[in-house]
Amino acid sequence: MLLPKKTKFRKVRKGKNGGVATRSNYVAFGDYGLQSLTNERITSRQIESARQAMTRHTKRGGKIWIRIFPHTPVTKKPLDVKMGSGKGNPEFFVAKVKTGTILFEMKGIDEVTAREAMRLAANKLPVKTRFVVKEEA
User: Fold this and answer.
1) Predicted TM-score (pTM) above 0.90
2) In the chain, where are the structural domains located?
3) Fewer CB within 10 Å, N or C, the chain?
4) By CB neighbour count within 10 A (0-12 exposed, 13-18 middle, 19+ buried), where does 48 fall?
5) Secondary-structure class of domain 32-75+90-133 per CATH
6) Are 11 and 73 in contact, with CB atoms under 8 Å apart?
7) How far is residue 94's CA from residue 1's CA, in Å, rounded to a whole number?
8) Contact criterion met (CB below 8 Å) for 96 and 85
9) For 26-74, how does the pLDDT look when each residue is reduced to its tens digit (9 = 90+)?
10) DSSP 8-state class, residue 108
11) How far apart are CA 40 and CA 37, in angstroms?
């Protein structure tokens, strides 16, 4: 599972997650990509689950790039705790994903296999996605 080695601050505020991605919004490394169509927080467990689905479908062929990383800690308070008494402890990490962000990329396999692998991965994620092919310049 992905998580940062070290963070500057243990706890962070929720913040906003709106707008359209201006970076990481094109296929850079592979031939095919999975692009987000909505804004959402994706947990490290969801990223790992999607990665496993793609790897299993391709029978470990080709190469896969994960273009997002869960930097943001999410805190939770224990069950049956009264209101007040501060913020909870960090429980898991999320990646804040904007519309247009490329989530995964693939190379070294045919388009039909890549499309199916990306579809399986998309089912594991909380965002609406689309399959994109690298634009030849």
Assistant:
1) yes
2) 32-75+90-133
3) C
4) middle
5) alpha beta
6) yes
7) 11
8) no
9) 999 999 999 999 999 999 999 999 999 999 999 988 999 999 999 999 9
10) S
11) 10
